[in-house]
Write a structure and sequence with these properties.
The protein is of the alpha+beta class and 423 residues long. It has 14 helices and 18 strands. A hairpin with a 2-residue loop joins strand 16 and strand 17.
Length: 423
C-alpha cells in the first residue's frame, strides 16, 4: 500500500525502531556482531543502511542462487555497497538446483543452510533477514489459499534458530514503501528481482491481489494484525502442548512412551502432540498434516501399529511406544560421524575402524539379553550400534559397557517437552 510522503518516518525513526526490535530479540547493537543477508533488493539494502546508521558491527552475505543471469552482477553490486559502508562481504553460491521440484522452496531452504554455515564460520551473534510487513501479508494470503490452520496463518516469528545460527527479523513492522524512501534519501541503489512479478509464482500473485483486497478493507496492515493475533494463539497452544507433553511423554534412548491420557486432551492439542513426537523422532522441515496425520492419530488411539514420516508407533502394555522406523534409518558411517542425522558416538572405541549402523536383526542375534528390557523387538531394530568386523560392540540399552561406550542424541530430550527449545 503506497504511503504518502507526509506519512514517511524519518531515517532516524526507522533506525530507532530497528534498534528497539533488535533489543527485544536479545541483540545488543553495541556488543554483538550481526550478519546481514542482503540480496540487493530495496528491503535488504535498507536493512544494511539501517545497521550502518546504528553503528552496528556487521558482515554482509549475498546468496547467489545462480537462477538468473544477472544474479552474479547483483552480488557484486551488494559487495561494492557494503565496502563503501565499511562492511566485509561474502557471496554464498548455491549449486544444488537440479531443475526438479519447487524452485522457490528449494532456494529458500538452501539460503538458510548457507547463511547458517556462514554465521557459524564468522562467529556472528545473529543473521538479520529483511522480511517486511508486505512479506507477511503475502504469506498470509498464500497460506489462506492452501487452507492453512492456526500455525500456517500465524505471523512469521521474529527470531528462530536454524543449524545452530540465530536468525532475526528486525524490520518485520516496516513497509516496502518507507524502506525505499529511506534508501533513496541515503543515495542507496537497489535492484528489483523480476521473479517478484512472475505470475507463475504464488507470492507474485498474492502481491498483485493485495490492492484489490485493500478495496474491501482487507489491506496489508489488517492482514498483518490478524497474523499477529494468530501468532499469539499459536504460541498459547504451544505452551498448552508443552504441559501435555510433560504429562504424557517419557523418553529413553530415543524411544518415547506415550501415556493413554493424551487422548483426553482437546483434538488440537492431540494433533500437536503427535506431530511433536514425529518431528522429534524423525526431524524434518515440516510435520505431517492433513488426512495422513488424521488417519495415523486414529490408528494410534485404537491401539494399532502405525508408521508415518519415519516414525513407528506400537501399542505396549496399555501405552504406546514411538520410535524411529527401522527401514528409514541411515546407512553405516564412521564412528566419528553423526548417524541417521541424530546420533553421535562419544565413547572409547578400541577398534581402529568401527562403524555406526542400525542394531538391526543381526545385532539382536548377538545380544542375548535384549528381551529382559521388556521392549518390543521392532523398537530396538533402529537403535544406533557400534560395529567392528561384524561384531556388535555397543548400543544405548546395553548397560554392560556403559562406562566405556556412550551415545548422544540431537535433538535432546528437553526439546521434546518445550516447543521453544526446538526452534
Amino acid at each position: 500500500m503506497p504511503v504518502g510522503p507526509g506519512a514517511q518516518p524519518s531515517g532516524a525513526g526507522l533506525a530507532a525502531r530497528c534498534a528497539g526490535q533488535l533489543a527485544r530479540l536479545g541483540f545488543d547493537i553495541h556488543k554483538h556482531k550481526l550478519g546481514l543477508a542482503v540480496s540487493g533488493g530495496g528491503d535488504s539494502m535498507a536493512l544494511m543502511h539501517l545497521a550502518h546508521q546504528l553503528g552496528i558491527g556487521a558482515r554482509v552475505a549475498t546468496v547467489d542462487h545462480r537462477l538468473r543471469l544477472a544474479s552474479a552482477d547483483e552480488a557484486h553490486m551488494v559487495a561494492r555497497a557494503a565496502q563503501e559502508l565499511g562492511y566485509g562481504h561474502d557471496t554464498l553460491t548455491w549449486r544444488g538446483w537440479d531443475g526438479r521440484g519447487n524452485v522457490q522452496d528449494r532456494a529458500r531452504r538452501a539460503r538458510r543452510d548457507l547463511l547458517a554455515a556462514w554465521a557459524q564460520e564468522n562467529g556472528l551473534d545473529g543473521v538479520a533477514l529483511a522480511h517486511t510487513s508486505g512479506d507477511l501479508a503475502e504469506g498470509f494470503i498464500m497460506r489462506l489459499a492452501r487452507g492453512a490452520g492456526v500455525d500456517g496463518l500465524a505471523a512469521m516469528p521474529t527470531r528462530f534458530v536454524h543449524d545452530g545460527a540465530a536468525f532475526l527479523r528486525p524490520i518485520l513492522w516496516a513497509t516496502r514503501d518507507e524502506l525505499r524512501v529511506f534508501c533513496a534519501a541515503r543515495g542507496a541503489v537497489w535492484v528489483d528481482d523480476p521473479s517478484n512479478e512472475a505470475v507463475k509464482f504464488d507470492r507474485a500473485r498474492a502481491r498483485k491481489a493485495l490492492p484489490q483486497l485493500a478495496k474491501l478493507g482487507i489491506g496489508p496492515q489488517v492482514l498483518v494484525g490478524v497474523a499477529a493475533h494468530l501468532r499469539e494463539a499459536s504460541d498459547a497452544l504451544d505452551y498448552a502442548s508443552d504441559d501435555l507433553a510433560r504429562a504424557c511423554l517419557h523418553q529413553a534412548n530415543g524411544i518415547i512412551t506415550l501415556a493413554p491420557e493424551w487422548q483426553n486432551a482437546p483434538p488440537e492439542l492431540q494433533r500437536r502432540l503427535i506431530q511433536r513426537v514425529i518431528l522429534w523422532i524423525a526431524p524434518a522441515d515440516y510435520p505431517p498434516r492433513g488426512a495422513a496425520l488424521g488417519e495415523a492419530m486414529l490408528r494410534v488411539a485404537q491401539g494399532l501399529p502405525t508408521q508415518l514420516a519415519g516414525c513407528h508407533f506400537v501399542p505396549h502394555h496399555g501405552q504406546t511406544l514411538a520410535f524411529r522406523e527401522a527401514r528409514r534409518c541411515g546407512g553405516p558411517v564412521e564412528a566419528q560421524s553423526i548417524w541417521d542425522g541424530m546420533w553421535r558416538y562419544v565413547g572409547k572405541a578400541a577398534d581402529t575402524e568401527p562403524k555406526i549402523a542400525p542394531l538391526g536383526a543381526a545385532g539382536l542375534l548377538q545380544w542375548q539379553g535384549w528381551r529382559a528390557l521388556g521392549l518390543p523387538r521392532a523398537a530396538l531394530l533402529s537403535q544406533p550400534c557400534l560395529w567392528a568386523d561384524g561384531q556388535m560392540i555397543a548400543t544405548p540399552f546395553l548397560h554392560d559397557n556403559a562406562q566405556t561406550h556412550a551415545f548422544l542424541r540431537s535433538p535432546a530430550a528437553d526439546s521434546l517437552y518445550s516447543k521453544r527449545l526446538s526452534h
